[in-house]
Amino acid sequence: MSYLAVDHDRCILCGECTSSCPFNALILEDKLEILDTCRLCKICIEICPTDALFIKQDSSKKTDISSFRDVLVFAEQRDGKLSGVVFELIAKGRELATKLNQKLYVVLIGSKTEELVEKLSDYPVDGIYIYDHKELSYYRAEPYTAVLEDLISDIRPSIFLIGATQVGRSLAPKIATRQRTGLTADCTFIDVKPNGDLVQIRPAFGGNVMAQIVTPNHRPQLATVRPKVMEQAKPSLDHPTKISYRDIKPQMLQSGIRFVSIEPKLKEVSITEADILVAVGRGLKKAEDLNLIEELAQSLGAMVAVTRPLVELGWAPQTRQVGLSGRTVRPKLFIACGISGAIQHVAGMSSSDFIIAINKDKTAPIFDTCHFGLVGDMYEILPLLIKELREVKTLVAESRWPNA
Amino acid sequence: MRIIVCIKQVPDTTEVAIDEKKGVLKREGVDSRLNPYDLYALETALRIKAEKGAEVIVISMGPMQAEAVIKEAYYMGADSGILLSDRKFAGADTLATAYTLAQGIKKIGSFDLVITGQQTTDGDTAQVGPAVAEFLGLPHICYVTGIKDVSPNSLTVVTDMLDTLETQSLQLPALLTVARDIYQPRLISYRLKLSSKDREITVLNYNDLSQNQGSAALEDEYFGLSSSPTQVERIFPPSSVISREILEENPHILVKKTILKLKELKII
Fold it and tell me: Closest Cα partner for B143 from B98, B175, B189, B101?
């Protein structure tokens, strides 16, 4: 609704703004030019010593935002199973709705949804809207967009949260565009202002920068949320949930896409795709001891990676090697066992979200790279750790099925 | 067949960092390049061209410097290129960017397929492809990892859903966003560099794309910052103060503390 402008009479061509612009949007030639890359961050306005830069308001179109209220969450299902991120969105949606004193609704699209509806109704949501049709069992962008358009025009939610999954990242931009509203991708933090504006924080520029984004003049405010970042909701049986099956008109099911087949991925997953890696280096005394590493990996649902010396010894294939001459990895968790932290190895793993290092030598350089370091012998620590992890797992299993 | 590939010039993100004192991006020595994900989109189009015969048109929105990435596409084998460049396109978010690209694509006239990369390395949103599809009224499929069949009226593709591979067919015209590794992108050809040296780049500005020939703002027109629903309120460095804990204790205590840490990280 507004753009950056310059008052050339005030501008003294000092260049303060050009060097502070994060988006390279200001250049000095005969006069100050504002380029296409301006994102209205307003840093230049604060820096300008002569107040020559200002925001020009363009009062063109504006949605009547006051007629939108409540929070809607997309309950993504694939192959009859709810995506894990759904429960994270429910927890966040509940928090936002409570702060705003509004309601939390969930929309479920699929076929034969009864069990999923039952499961969702155990959670603290005020209502579930269901579009159930065999043509909706698999995700296709057009029918899913059509039914969500139907729902949005009816209940007019102020906030609509979608998981940043393969499906969510395909669907959300189509809906946002259909609604001519704002969408913020892959948020890692979400909150709400008292006036109902959604505060959306996400990484940009490959994670080098965090950006806080708002959609002040449009509704609904759409955001996709990165999975496994936020807390999952807990069932709450005393929360009444209204269940509404929605009518589906034939034209909503029209699509230029035809589903042909689905098959499980067969090829071995590359270590670059793993969420968790357990890596081992020269601290490993013999090839058979890889079993210990494999056991730890299994208890965490992780893959095993190695350093170059182990590949050279023929103990592991090159596809498992992390480092300059191997793969560069960026898992959520990297556990380095008996790895000294040579620069060639660190270059391939230092961008991991979280690094745990286990090494006997407290002067090992790996301790300058890790977030959490254990000084000790991995041959003592790992068996204990595996045992503890198994106990945790059993406990979780028991609490999940108390009568089993 | 006529294939349109959307491409973008991006800063080399590995060099982008925040000046923590000022709270702004450090920009000295930051180079621009063709968004790496777009190489896969372009390669996909060029493979279809090689096998079935096709005209490959690249389109980009950006400042005039972005001509560099269109030239790069010529060196790989694109037949023609369009740059959408105007001060009025400035500061576009994904909705306005997609709208502007869609308007540019409409100018091309008839086409069979639009291909984009799965995302850019600067915005990382992965939103512009599907949004372009919506503005053009096309069916779209994201994260395509393989093209199984190309026929005059339809396309059969494989998509990577992380745990499964799905095969779907689309009626043309349609839009695909392709995943990394669909094909190995080719290198720049020295021969093409020479032969395309004088090839023109069509530059379209606001007046070329807008339906608006009067002064009043049009109801359903979304160019640049003034039509962008999202606004960046602030940028800041990622929490750089990552705590580093180095523990030196007996193994049992180390393991207990590790379990607590894994719970805190929501690993277990």
Answer: B175
Q: Which domain holds residue A165?
A: 65-253
Whether residue A362 sits in one domain with residue A337: yes
The angle subtended at Cα A34 by Cα A13 and Cα B5, nearest 5°, is 150
The pLDDT tens digits for A256-273 are 999 999 988 766 678 888
A-chain CB neighbours of B252 within 8 Å are 384
The shortest CB-CB distance from A258 to any of B160, B169, B230 is to B169
Work out the burial of residue B154: count CB atoms within 10 Å of its CB; fewer than 13 is exposed, 13-18 middle, 19 or more buried: middle
Regarding whether A113 and A53 lie in a shared domain, the answer is no
A212 chain-B contacts, CB cut-off 8 A: 232-236
Out of B174, B245, B255, closest to residue A381 by CB: B255
CB contact under 8 A, B131 and A177: yes
ipTM: 0.89
Q: In the predicted model, what is the mean pLDDT of residues A114-132?
A: 97
Six token digits for residue A377: 């012998």
**Does residue A400 fall inside a structural domain?**
no
Residue A323: give its domain's CATH number: 3.40.50.1220
A110 Cβ contact partners less than 8 Å away, ≥ 6 residues apart = A77, A80, A116, A131, A132, A136, A137
Shared-domain flag, residues A241 and A206: yes
Q: Which residues of B touch A367 (CB under 8 A)?
A: 246
| CA gap A105, B216 in Å, rounded | 39
Q: Are A25 and A38 in contact (CB under 8 A)?
A: yes
Say what the pTM is.
0.78
Domain B2-227 has CATH 3.50.50.60: no
Domain count, chain A: 3
How many beta-carbon contacts under 8 Å exist across A and B? Answer: 309
List, run by run, the mean pLDDT of 10-residue segments along chain B (268 residues). 96 66 59 92 97 97 94 97 92 94 95 96 91 97 96 94 91 95 90 93 93 58 88 78 82 93 88
| B77 at interface of A, judged by CB pairs closer than 8 A | no
Statement to judge: residues A71 and A203 lie in one domain: yes
Interface test with B, best of A272, A366, A374, A396 (most B CBs within 10 A): A374
With contacts defined as CB-CB under 8 Å, which chain B residues touch A149? none
Contact B235 A211 (CB under 8 A): yes
* B165 → closest Cβ in A209, A263, A385: A263
